[in-house]
Automatic annotation (TrEMBL):
Segments crossing the lipid bilayer: 198-218, 238-257
Spans annotated as Disordered: 336-362
Presence of keyword Transmembrane: yes
Organism: Chimaeribacter coloradensis
Keyword terms: Coiled coil, Membrane, Transmembrane, Transmembrane helix
Lineage: Bacteria, Pseudomonadati, Pseudomonadota, Gammaproteobacteria, Enterobacterales
Comp. bias (Gly residues): 341-350
Protein name per Swiss-Prot or TrEMBL: Uncharacterized protein
Length: 362
């Protein structure tokens, strides 16, 4: 049931008719149903009627009028003047709506104030970020400018270093190279002269050895031709003297030629050093400004070449005394056997004539 008693139903129907929500036909239809206690049908009819009401009217009826009606607050005067009661309801509901609206407006104002505060904070933060971005851009431009200036200063510093290095090279290297080259040229000429002198001495000793060999051969031939009796000791003395003289002269010629070769080699080394020194000077004149210390050392490392001198090498040693004695012994045996062979052949042909003797050599 919509209401607690029939009396309330009658009052509600009477009120709806007074305010003009329903007409007499509807009232005549509802009253028999109330009289026969058909409350469900009455409720359905009332619900159908209320469906045609305005939403605000429904809200008033459901939330306010029903409660007042059940509580007995709707008196007879109000029932008689239903429009006045409805107006009172409208005013009351309007006040409630205004109160709720003011409360909503206050809440919205609070929210708007908070949003304004948030927006202000975001705006301030955006301004700070914009300033920071502008500052970063300025710093970046300053950094790029400083980088360009630093690079220019580095290039200028490098150019000044190269210019200073080139000035030092132009001021010191030519004089040093000229001085060393002059000394090397002097040594070259000195070694060349000494090589020529030793070469002449070697040719002289070699010529003397050849002359001594021919002289000894000629003297021995004369002695052998004039001798009536062969004397082995005299023959050995002649050949030993000749071999000794030729050997000494040959050894002297060998020493002279070896010394001349050494001086010639040293002269050639001086020329190579001059060439390396001049090449280093030319390199520094062209690339000296940008040359590093290691490059300079590599360029000039060959001018004063390391290595043993020709004079420090061991030359070929002349024949030793034992080798000469061994050679003479072999020569002696050969001559004796040859002389004996010639002597035997002559005796058979001349009837036993003794061989001529070699006179002693004064």
């Amino acid at each position: 049931m919509k209401f607690s008693s029939k009396h309330v139903y009658f009052e509600y129907i009477d009120f709806l008719m007074r305010v003009g929500y329903i007409n007499e036909e509807v009232v005549l239809e509802l009253l028999p149903l109330l009289g026969s206690d058909k409350m469900e049908e009455v409720d359905h009819l009332l619900d159908d009627l209320e469906q045609s009401f305005h939403s605000r009217q429904k809200d008033y009826l459901n939330n306010t009028f029903y409660k007042d009606l059940e509580a007995g607050e709707v008196d007879g005067a109000a029932m008689e003047g239903g429009h006045a009661y409805l107006y009172e309801l409208l005013v009351r509901q309007h006040k409630q709506e205004m109160t709720a609206l003011h409360q909503t407006i206050e809440e919205q104002n609070v929210r708007l104030a908070k949003k304004r505060q948030d927006i202000q904070q975001l705006t301030d933060r955006a301004q700070l970020l914009e300033k920071a971005a502008l500052r970063y851009k300025t710093l970046q431009e300053s950094s790029e400018t400083l980088g360009i200036e630093n690079e220019e200063l580095r290039k200028e510093n490098k150019e000044l270093k190269e210019l200073s290095q080139q000035k030092r090279i132009d001021g010191k290297i030519p004089g040093y190279v000229k001085e060393v080259s002059a000394k090397l040229d002097l040594d070259d000429k000195s070694f060349a002269k000494l090589a020529n002198k030793w070469s002449i001495a070697g040719f002289t000793a070699a010529s003397a050895a050849v002359f001594a060999a021919f002289f000894t051969f000629a003297e021995g031939s004369v002695l052998l031709a004039n001798a009536k009796v062969y004397d082995e000791i005299a023959l050995l003395y002649v050949f030993f003297r000749g071999v000794l003289g030729v050997g000494l002269l040959s050894w002297l010629a060998n020493v002279c030629f070896s010394t001349s070769r050494n001086y010639t080699h040293e002269s050639i080394r001086r020329k190579d050093r001059q060439h390396a020194l001049n090449f280093g000077r030319l390199y520094l004149q062209i690339y000296g400004a940008s040359a590093q210390k290691e490059e300079m050392l590599n360029v000039f490392k060959d001018w004063n070449m390391a290595g043993d001198s020709s004079f420090s090498k061991e030359g070929a040693a002349p024949p030793s005394m034992m080798e000469m004695i061994d050679g003479l012994s072999k020569m002696k045996a050969g001559l004796i056997s040859k002389a004996r062979g010639n002597g035997g052949g002559g005796g058979s042909s001349s009837g036993g004539t003794p061989p001529p003797t070699v006179p002693p050599v004064p």
